[in-house]
Specification:
heterotrimer, A alpha/beta, B mainly beta, C alpha/beta, A: alpha/beta, 10 strands, globular, B: mainly beta, 5-stranded antiparallel beta sheet, elongated
C-alpha cells in the first residue's frame, strides 16, 4: 500500500445557508483555503471526488453544478459518490492506491435547510414497508436509545454527559453552530423533546461544506510539515432493518475498527449525531477511557449533512498537524441507527504498522 | 433586501412499485387482514419477511401467519408529527414483536401521552377499514385492553395477490438562487439582462455563475447585455411529457446574446418552427411590464429581428 | 506503483423491459447478480466488497438505496459503496470496482448497476422545473437535439446517417435475448418515417426507458486462474468537464477526447480502428455513434464518423462492429447502461456474447457518458493479460 496522508482541510457550517443548494459559493473559498494550505493550484490536484445527495437539494444531478467550483478546463479526473465526504475520501484514497494519481481533493456539501431534513431522510429507508410511515431520523434514533436504556447499557445521565462535554468542547470550535456547556444536572432538567431524547441529545440541522486534501509519499512531505498519514481506512455496512439488528450494537463499526487496529489512538473524532450513539461507538471501536473523544464538539454541535463524517477525519488530522497527538481516529456513519460505518486512523509516523481495509 | 431569491418547489410523484413475490405475499396478507411473517434459515420468524435469507441469500419461501397482537419492545415519542406520518397528532413510534414472531416490526402506536406507552406493554393492530395492500393497511397499533377481541378481520383471500403498491412521495423545498443568479433575476425585474465576466479568463456568462466553470474563479464584474443575439443551435420539441409547461411543438433554442460568451436556452416564437435556422438573429420580446417578476420568464420569447443571419464562423465556436 | 492485474470473470444482466412488474428493486438487482455469480462460479459468500451504481435517486424515489438493499445484495457485513456520476455511472462504478482489485485492497468484488425507472417517469425526474428559469427543458432528448443539429451542420452529414445507426442497433438487438426492444423490421426507411420528437431526433432514433440491471464480478490474478476465459482490464479512464463553460465544444467535448487519448495510452493502443475488435459505445440517440466515433479517435473529426457509419463499417460484420448488443438504443436502464457497455465489451473478448458475438474478438472498448456530455468513463478489456 502507498503512504497517503491528509495534508489539507477546510470547512464551513451554518444553521441556514441562504444560497443555492449547489453550494458553489461555499465551495470556492474552501478550495482557496486548501490551495493556501498546500501552496497548490487546481492543476496540482490529480483526482477530485465529491459527496452529496440529490434529495437534499430536491433535484436530479445536483452535484453537477458544484463541478463549476473546481474549474474544469482542462477536463479533470473526477467522480462522485452519493454518500458522505468520508466515502468520497475513500474513493480518492483508492485512486491514489492504484498509482494513477498522487494527489486528490475531496469535497462535500449539503443544504439540509432547503427541505425538512427529518422528513427527507425518511426516503433513505426501505421504500415498501418503512418510508410509507415516514419515520423521521429522531424517532429511529430514539427507538435505539430506548433499547439501551431498557437494557441498562446506558442511562440518561451518561447521555447528558456526552452532550455536556461536547457543548463545552465546542466553545473552542469556531465552526460549531451549537455551543456552551453547563452541567449534567442542568441538561437533565431540560424537558424531554422526543422521549427518550432531549433536544441536546440530537444533532442540530446544519448546512455546510468541507474539503480535504490527500497526497501520497513525497507530495505529502512537500506541502506539510507533519502529514497525517492514513495508516488504516476501512468501512462496512449492516442490514437496515430496525427489527433484526441488535440496535445497541454496531457490528460494522466494530469490523472497521478491527480491520484498521486502534491501539494507541489518543484522540477519536466520532460521528455520532445522537448522544447515545457515542456510547455505542466507544464500545464497538474498543476505545479506552483515556482516549479524548470529539475535541471539536462532534456532530452534536454541528452536523452538516454529507460533510459531517469527513469533517471528523479533518478534525482528527488537525490534531496530528498541531503536534498534540501522534495517532488519531476519524469515524463516519451513514444510514439509520449507525447502519454503515467508516474508520480512518491517522498517524504522525508513516512507518507505523498498518492493517489494510 | 435579502441576499438571495427563493421560491418554493414541490417534488412529488406517486411511485408505482412492483413488490416481487416476498413483499407481495406480505402486503397481500395485510390487505386480507393477516400479518404474514417469513421464517429465515436460522429458524427466526421475521416481520416483515426479508426478501432474501440473511445467511443463505436465497429468496425467502417459508411463510407463516402471526397474530395481530404483540408486545412493545421499544418506543419513542413523536411530539411534532411531520406530513404523512401515520397520525397527525402526537404519537409513539414503536417496535412491536407480534405473537408468533421473533423480531419486532416498526409502526406507530396511538396513545395520547408518553405516560401511556411502555416497553413490554401489550398492543394490537388497528386495521384500516379499506385496505389496499400496503403497510398503511395497519392504520397503527393501539393498546390491547383486557377483554378485547383479538381476532383479526381476516377476509379469506378472494382477490388476486398484490404485486404492486403505490407510495406517494411529496417533498417541499425552498429553492434559493445563488447571489449571482439573484442579481440576474433582479435585473430582469427591471428589464435588464445582466451577465458577469470572469476576471481570470474574461468570458462573460449569462446567467452568471458563482464561479467560472473554466477556472473556478468567482465571477465578479457585472456586464449589461444587449437583448439581441444569435440562435446558435436549437431543436423543435414535439413530445408532450409530465410536468411540461409549454405546449408542443415549440422551438427550444440556444440564444447567444451580443456581448455574451455563452448561450442559454429560451423559446423562439413569431416564426413557423420549420423556418428557424442556425445563425438566425433574434431579439427578446418582453411580457407586459405589470407581469414582470424576478424570473427569466419576463422575456416571453425571442423573435426574429429580420437582420441577415449571422455568419457561421461568428458563432461556430459556441456549438 | 503499478496497478495489479484485474479481470472480469462473471457478467450478468436482467431481461430489460419497459416495466419489470414481476420484481422488486432487490429482485431486479439479484437477477443480474445471480447470473454474474453463476458465470463466475462463485457465491455471494466469496465476495469481499460490493459497489453499487445508480443514476438520480429521484427515478425510484429512494435516497441512497444501497442502504436498504444491503442485505438483499449480500453486502451485510461487507464494505459497500455507491457511485453516482449521472449517465456514465454504470461505467464509473465498474471502474471503482476494478480499482479495488487493482490497488490490492480486495480480491473479489461484485459490482451492480440498476435502474427501475418505471416506478416513476424518467422524463419527469429529469425535467423538474427550477424556479426563475425558463421551462423549455424537455428531458435528455431536448437537451441533446440542438447539439446533434450542430454536428450535422459541422460535418455536412446527410440526414439518413442517424437512421442507419438506429436500424443497425435495433436489428442487432434481435440477437440479444436480454435487450428491451426486439423490433423486427427496423430499416432506414422505417426510421426516417417515424415521428420527429425533438427535431432533428426522431422517435426510432431514441433510446427506450427500461427497467434493468447489470452485474460484474471482478477479481485478482490469482482468482482469475480458475476462469477459462477472463476478460482482462487493460485500461480505465474517467474525465469530467463543466456543463456550461463558455465556448465549450458540446459536439466533441474536450473531456471525451482527453479520456480517449489517456485510455489508448494506458492500454497500449496506437490505432484504435485497427486494434479494437468490437466497441460498445454509449449511443442513446442514434447520431451519437458518428459523434463518438470521431471523439474517440476511430475516425477523423468533422465528418469521419458519419462516413464510417455510412460505409457499413460499424455493422456486426464490419471493420469496427459497434453495439452488437443493440446498445443503449435498444435497452436503457439509465443507471445500468454504462455497465452494460462495459459488460458487453467483456462478453465479446470472453467469446461469450452468443448470437451477437464478433468472431475472434480479442480487444474491446466499453464506453459511457453522462450529464450534458460532460462525464466520461471508458475501459478496454482483452482476452490476454495486459503486458504493461
Amino acid at each position: 500500500m502507498r503512504d497517503v496522508a491528509v495534508v489539507g482541510f477546510a470547512q464551513r457550517q451554518m444553521e441556514e445557508f441562504d444560497g443555492s443548494p449547489t453550494c458553489v459559493e461555499l465551495l470556492v473559498p474552501l478550495f482557496e483555503e486548501c490551495y493556501e494550505q498546500t501552496g497548490w493550484t487546481r492543476k496540482d490536484v490529480g483526482f477530485w471526488c465529491s459527496g452529496s445527495s440529490d434529495y437534499l437539494a430536491g433535484r436530479s444531478f445536483s452535484f453537477v453544478q458544484a463541478v463549476d467550483a473546481i474549474g474544469v478546463l482542462p477536463p479533470v479526473n473526477e467522480s462522485h459518490v452519493e454518500m458522505d465526504l468520508a466515502w468520497a475520501l475513500y474513493e480518492a484514497w483508492l485512486k491514489i492506491q492504484t498509482g494513477e494519481v498522487d494527489t486528490a481533493l475531496v469535497y462535500a456539501f449539503g443544504k439540509s435547510s432547503a427541505g425538512v431534513l427529518r422528513r427527507t431522510l425518511a426516503l433513505q429507508l426501505e421504500p415498501y414497508t418503512m418510508t410509507p410511515l415516514w419515520p423521521d431520523t429522531v424517532s429511529l434514533a430514539g427507538l435505539q436509545a430506548r433499547v439501551g436504556l431498557d437494557a441498562g447499557l446506558w442511562d440518561e445521565r451518561a447521555m447528558a454527559e456526552v452532550a455536556n462535554r461536547s457543548l463545552t468542547a465546542a466553545e473552542k470550535n469556531e465552526y460549531a453552530v451549537r455551543k456552551g456547556g453547563s452541567s449534567v444536572e442542568e441538561l437533565l432538567a431540560r424537558p424531554m423533546y422526543a422521549d427518550p431524547l432531549r433536544k441536546h441529545d440530537c444533532a442540530p440541522v446544519t448546512d455546510g461544506a468541507a474539503a480535504i486534501v490527500l497526497a501520497a509519499g513525497d507530495r505529502a512531505r512537500e506541502v506539510c510539515e507533519r502529514p497525517a498519514w492514513i495508516s488504516g481506512l476501512s468501512h462496512y455496512v449492516d442490514p437496515m432493518s430496525m427489527g433484526t439488528r441488535d440496535l445497541t450494537r454496531s457490528p460494522s463499526a466494530a469490523r472497521a475498527a478491527a480491520a484498521v487496529g486502534i491501539d494507541g489512538v489518543e484522540v477519536a473524532e466520532l460521528h455520532a449525531p445522537f448522544s447515545h450513539q457515542e456510547l455505542i461507538l466507544r464500545r464497538e471501536l474498543g476505545l479506552g477511557d483515556d482516549v479524548a473523544v470529539n475535541p471539536s464538539g462532534g456532530a452534536l454541535t454541528s452536523n452538516p449533512m454529507f460533510s459531517a463524517g469527513g469533517i471528523r477525519i479533518g478534525e482528527a488530522a488537525k490534531r496530528i498537524w498541531s503536534g498534540e497527538a501522534s495517532r488519531t481516529l476519524g469515524h463516519a456513519t451513514s444510514g439509520p441507527a449507525l447502519q454503515q460505518n467508516l474508520v480512518c486512523v491517522l498517524d504522525a509516523d508513516q512507518t507505523s504498522n498498518r492493517k489494510g481495509a | 433586501m435579502v441576499r438571495t431569491l427563493s421560491a418554493p418547489v414541490t417534488v412529488a410523484f406517486d411511485y408505482t412499485r412492483s413488490t416481487g413475490p416476498v413483499l407481495g405475499r406480505f402486503l397481500t396478507g395485510l390487505r386480507d387482514g393477516v400479518v404474514v411473517a417469513g421464517r429465515t434459515s436460522d429458524g427466526r420468524v421475521v416481520v416483515p419477511p426479508p426478501e432474501f435469507d440473511p445467511v443463505t441469500h436465497e429468496p425467502l419461501t417459508d411463510f407463516v401467519d402471526v397474530a395481530a397482537t404483540g408486545t412493545v419492545s421499544s418506543w419513542t415519542w413523536v411530539p411534532e408529527p411531520v406530513k404523512a406520518q401515520p397520525l397527525d397528532r402526537p404519537f409513539a413510534f414503536v417496535l412491536v414483536t407480534l405473537d408468533g414472531a421473533d423480531t419486532p416490526f416498526l409502526h406507530a402506536l396511538d396513545v395520547s401521552s408518553p405516560d401511556e406507552v411502555s416497553t413490554g406493554m401489550r398492543v394490537q393492530v388497528r386495521w384500516r377499514g379499506e385496505r389496499a395492500g400496503a403497510v398503511t393497511d395497519i392504520e397503527c397499533f393501539e393498546p390491547l385492553r383486557d377483554g378485547d377481541e383479538t381476532g383479526s378481520p381476516a377476509t379469506g383471500s378472494t382477490q388476486d395477490p398484490v404485486t404492486g403498491v403505490i407510495t406517494p412521495v411529496e417533498l417541499d423545498y425552498l429553492y434559493a438562487a445563488s447571489p449571482e443568479e439573484s442579481s440576474f433575476y433582479r435585473g430582469l425585474a427591471e428589464g435588464r439582462i445582466l451577465g458577469q465576466r470572469c476576471p481570470a479568463c474574461g468570458k462573460v456568462y449569462v446567467p452568471p455563475r458563482s464561479a467560472c466553470p473554466a477556472d473556478g474563479t468567482p465571477t465578479t464584474d457585472e456586464v449589461e447585455l444587449s437583448e439581441t443575439g444569435t440562435v446558435t443551435t436549437f431543436c423543435v420539441v414535439n413530445v408532450p411529457f409530465l410536468g411540461q409547461r409549454i405546449k408542443p411543438p415549440y422551438v427550444s433554442a440556444y440564444v447567444l446574446l451580443d456581448g455574451a460568451d455563452i448561450a442559454f436556452l429560451h423559446l423562439i416564437l413569431d416564426i413557423p418552427a420549420e423556418e428557424v435556422r442556425m445563425g438566425m438573429r433574434v431579439k427578446a420580446v418582453w411580457k407586459p411590464r405589470e407581469e414582470w417578476g424576478t424570473t427569466i420568464e419576463n422575456i416571453s420569447h425571442f423573435a426574429p429581428t429580420g437582420e441577415p443571419d449571422a455568419d457561421y464562423d461568428t458563432y461556430k465556436q459556441h456549438l | 506503483m503499478a496497478k495489479q492485474p484485474a479481470a472480469v470473470v462473471g457478467i450478468g444482466q436482467t431481461h430489460h423491459r419497459a416495466k419489470r412488474e414481476d420484481v422488486s428493486m432487490a429482485g431486479l438487482c439479484r437477477e443480474a447478480i445471480d447470473r454474474a455469480l453463476v458465470d463466475a462460479n462463485m457465491t455471494l459468500d466469496d465476495i469481499d466488497a460490493i459497489v453499487v451504481g445508480k443514476a438520480p435517486d429521484l427515478f425510484e424515489g429512494v435516497m441512497m438505496p444501497e442502504l436498504f438493499l444491503a442485505e438483499s445484495l449480500g453486502a451485510a457485513g461487507k464494505p459497500l459503496l455507491r457511485v453516482h456520476t449521472a449517465g456514465s455511472v454504470g461505467g464509473s462504478t465498474a471502474i471503482v470496482a476494478s480499482s479495488l482489485v487493482q490497488a490490492g485492497v480486495h480480491k473479489r468484488v461484485l459490482t451492480v448497476a440498476y435502474e427501475k425507472q418505471s416506478e416513476s417517469n424518467a422524463m419527469w425526474a429529469l425535467s423538474v422545473p427550477v424556479p426563475f428559469n425558463m421551462p423549455v427543458h424537455a428531458g435528455a432528448g431536448g437537451y441533446f437535439a440542438p447539439h446533434v443539429r450542430s454536428y450535422i451542420r459541422r460535418s455536412g452529414a446527410p440526414n439518413h446517417v442517424g437512421a442507419i445507426v438506429a436500424a443497425k442497433d435495433r436489428t442487432n438487438a434481435l440477437k440479444n435475448p436480454f435487450a428491451h426492444l426486439h423490433n423486427e423490421g427496423t430499416t432506414v426507411e422505417s426510421v426516417l418515417a417515424s415521428q420527429m420528437l425533438w427535431d432533428p431526433i426522431r422517435y426510432d432514433e431514441t433510446c427506450p426507458s427500461s427497467d434493468g440491471a447489470c452485474a460484474l464480478v471482478i477479481v485478482d490474478e490469482d482468482t482469475a486462474k480458475a476462469s477459462p476465459n477472463p476478460a482482462w482490464i487493460h485500461g480505465t479512464v474517467m474525465r469530467s468537464e463543466a456543463t456550461t463553460a463558455a465556448e465549450r465544444d458540446q459536439v466533441n467535448p474536450q473531456a471525451s477526447r482527453d479520456a480517449a487519448a489517456a485510455l489508448w495510452k494506458q492500454a497500449g493502443i496506437t490505432s484504435p480502428i485497427d486494434e479494437i475488435d468490437a466497441a460498445e459505445i454509449y449511443v442513446p440517440f442514434s447520431w451519437f455513434e458518428p459523434m463518438w466515433l470521431e471523439s474517440l479517435g476511430f475516425a477523423d473529426a468533422n465528418g469521419g464518423g458519419w462516413r464510417l457509419t455510412e460505409s457499413g463499417a460499424t455493422a456486426m460484420d464490419g471493420r469496427l462492429p459497434v453495439n452488437c448488443s443493440g446498445g443503449v438504443l435498444s435497452s436503457n436502464p439509465i443507471g445500468a447502461s454504462g455497465m452494460l457497455r462495459f459488460g458487453e465489451a467483456a462478453l465479446q473478448v470472453r467469446g461469450a456474447a452468443g448470437e451477437h458475438q464478433v468472431d475472434g474478438a480479442r480487444k474491446a472498448l466499453g464506453h459511457a457518458y453522462g450529464g450534458g456530455s460532460q462525464f466520461f468513463s471508458m475501459w478496454v478489456v482483452g482476452a490476454e493479460k495486459p503486458t504493461n
